[in-house]
Design brief:
heterodimer; A: 231 residues; mainly beta; 10% helix; B: 460 residues; alpha/beta; TIM Barrel; 8-stranded parallel β-sheet; two-stranded antiparallel ribbon; 14 helices; 20 strands
Chain lengths: 231, 460
């Protein structure tokens, strides 16, 4: 992922988060690489970028790293706190380590790749983004997810896909339990293609045929006004 | 309660065989019959319909010998209102302290959203997006637009965030504190569905909790993220549905809000379970008092601004809210009524047409309708139906809302002048008395003609 240009350095032990984010919101030259040193778990690193630049965070990030990202590629060499890449619109966010709760929450687009495990509610409220998790995901992942894909190479916790809309979850390992209105469905050719393509983009190799498809049974789409009628 | 029935002479006389029960009155019987027939809870629009202690239960003490009034038409009375001066580099500056509450495109038509923007802009006040995102119509027509960040995050995106003038993080709504939203399938039109990333025509449920944070400590971090995203320019409001208002306001202030919005239980909704509307939350009067107590307790009264909403209808309501300590009010249902909600007619090409048949089709009548949830609004206010929405022409709606806001503002300044204030924000609790013991206790305003505030030690 290294760019060809010399990286612009930001050392968060010497510079403030505000200086970093302000610089990342300014007019940016496409392809510029920013290297953030000593992130030390700071919150809101590289939020709100709207340009095709690269940001390399050399260490652990706190809450909301790369929040609402557009166009940029952000790599976290370490773990990420809650809400990494929340509401991402486009671009790509990589976490080489683990991600905490709500990873990729309400992401409308883009690709989030988590090398390790993700915590609770991974892909909650997903709105079109794609998430690939190399490890396992915690409970209530893909809760009310509306569109997009969540690919889980490990296992899924309790209540997977509760109240799903049109998003699809693919799980390679075991599913502790499904949430309300989620069901396991057969993998179609298009599912195999989607999984292969997302794994390829994430740089993870597993046969797509290892995965199960979890999608909405669509029983919650309408309040069933006739179900319990007296006649 | 009725205990009479016509006798042979046609006169109503007590008849124990026709005694109506207070507990099982006709409304309750109807509720049980309906529940038994359908197995579903009742869903409706607008706010609480029960009688509650409210601003009507307060009165102003106009100036007399001990206070000096201002001349109604000749002496200045300032209404300028600044919101969000705590941390934001670009606070909101309004000409009047009366704002338009958050109502979604989806619950309302695009025409209505445009009308609200036009009216708010012409009066120098703000309007607010809702669940479902920002429409081009409202952004274009609104000089000052508050962008809501809701649990559902429908249509929420950084471009609109940057286009907004302030951000309102919605924790809850007075009509349903603790509940998520709903928009029934009839209103999930192709455009609404697309904006919300949902299949068309489904009964949409939205979450009651935010997806990426839980609890007040997280909220502080979330607010910081929104500030970083917008370079600390935009004021951040936090909106609370009134329940434990004292504690919730303190937590919101602690989390870093510039402005607190407290919505009492009279606040409206486009669609919520009846039981929620009538049985969850506290009245606006009580909520406002608790919110002001919280700000004063933290010594933040002048630093963090307070907007109160939930059943504000008149200029007197606005004046009383300000006197109790609010910096501004937000109005939803009053605005809808100004647009034509519950009116018998709608206007098209300058002519009035009867909408009564359409009310009848909903088994209701003008003045009683709360069928916003059906999307069949007879006057075209709360609908996505291409035919019905034509019944509200944006310019007609804008004129009505502007007139309504103008009237409220005139009444507000009249009250302020009568109390001897050159600035509506100088109205104070000492200008008020309460009419009922309940209002006195909730608002901590003395009962008229006494110095008694129930529960206040040493003030009998």
């Amino acid at each position: 992922m290294g760019g060809l240009t010399t990286p612009v350095l930001f050392d968060l032990s010497k510079q403030t988060l505000r200086e970093l984010n302000k610089a990342l919101h300014g007019p940016l030259v496409p392809g510029t690489v920013y290297r953030v040193e000593n992130p030390d778990g700071a919150h809101s690193i590289a939020v709100g970028i709207n340009a095709p630049v690269e940001v390399h965070i050399e260490g652990h990030a706190g809450y909301y790293a790369a929040g609402m990202n557009m166009l940029a590629t952000v790599v976290i060499y370490g773990n990420a706190g809650p809400g990494v890449a929340e509401n991402m619109m486009s671009g790509r966010v990589d976490v080489t380590g683990f991600a905490s709760g709500g990873a990729g929450a309400s992401a409308h687009g883009g690709l989030l790749v988590i090398g390790g495990d993700a915590g609770l509610r991974c892909g909650i409220s997903l709105k079109g983004g794609d998430i690939v998790v190399g490890g396992s995901v915690g409970s209530f992942s893909a809760f009310m997810a509306q569109a997009g894909n969540l690919v889980v190479c490990g296992d899924a916790g309790e209540g997977l896909g509760d109240s799903l809309y049109e998003a699809v979850v693919y799980v390679r390992g075991t599913i502790q339990s499904l949430g309300a209105d989620a069901q396991v469905e057969p993998m179609a050719e298009s599912d195999l293609a989607t999984v292969s393509s997302l794994l390829g983009a994430a740089g993870i190799s597993h046969p797509a045929s290892d995965f199960k498809r979890v999608a909405s049974a669509r029983n919650l789409y309408h309040w069933n006004a006739d179900a319990n009628q007296e006649y | 309660m009725s205990t009479s029935s016509p006798n042979n002479n046609g006169r109503h006389e007590p008849n124990l065989q026709c005694e109506e029960s207070a507990g099982l009155d006709r409304a309750t019987l109807n509720y049980i019959e309906r529940a038994a027939a359908t197995g579903l809870y009742e869903i409706r629009g607008l706010g609480s319909k029960r009688r509650l202690p409210h601003f009507d239960d307060l009165l102003f003490l106009g100036a007399s010998l001990s206070r000096y009034p201002l001349e109604g038409y000749r002496e200045k009375c300032i209404t300028k209102t600044v919101l969000g001066s705590r941390f934001a580099s670009k606070p909101i500056e309004l000409e009047i302290p009366i704002t338009i509450a958050g109502m979604s495109f989806g619950s309302l038509s695009a025409n209505v959203k445009e009308a609200l923007g036009l009216a708010a802009t012409s009066m120098g006040t703000s309007t607010t997006t809702g669940d479902g995102g920002m429409t081009q119509e409202e952004r274009r027509s609104s000089k000052t637009l508050i962008y809501q960040c809701l649990p559902s995050r429908y249509g929420f995106n950084p471009d609109d965030l940057r286009r907004a003038d302030a951000i309102e993080v919605v924790i809850g709504q007075g009509a349903k504190p603790g509940g998520g939203g709903m928009l029934l399938g009839q209103k999930v039109s192709p455009r609404v569905a697309k904006m919300r990333t949902l299949p068309e025509g489904i009964d949409q449920r939205s979450a009651c909790r935010h997806p990426d944070w839980t609890g007040p400590d997280d909220l502080a971090i979330k607010i910081k993220e929104l500030r970083e995203l917008t370079d600390w320019e935009k004021p951040i409001y936090v909106k609370i549905g009134a329940t434990r208002a004292f504690h919730d306001v303190k937590l919101a202030v602690h989390a870093g809000a510039d402005v607190i919005v407290v919505d009492g239980m009279q606040g409206g909704t486009a669609a919520t379970q009846l039981a929620f509307i009538e049985h969850v939350g506290i009245p606006t009067l009580a909520a406002l008092r608790q919110a002001v107590d919280a700000l004063e307790d933290m010594n933040k009264k002048d630093e963090v601004q307070l907007i109160v909403s939930g059943g504000i209808r008149t200029g007197a309501d606005v004046a009383k809210a300000l006197a109790m300590g609010a910096d501004a009010v937000a109005i939803g249902q009053g605005i809808l009524v100004a647009l034509g909600c519950n009116a018998a007619t709608y206007v098209r090409d300058g002519k009035h047409f009867s909408a009564v048949d359409d009310y009848t089709a909903l088994r209701t009548a003008p003045g009683f309708c709360h069928h916003c949830h059906t999307g069949r609004c007879p006057t075209g206010v709360t609908t996505q139906d291409p035919e019905l929405e034509q019944r509200l022409e944006p310019q007609v709606g804008a004129n009505r809302v502007r007139n309504y806001l103008k009237t409220l503002n005139m009444e507000l300044t009249m009250m302020a002048r009568a109390c001897g204030k050159q600035n509506v924000h100088h109205l104070e609790r000492e200008d008020l008395v309460a009419l009922t013991v309940e209002a006195a206790a909730m608002a901590k305003i003395p009962l008229a003609g006494t110095s008694w505030i129930p529960g206040e030690p040493g003030r009998m």
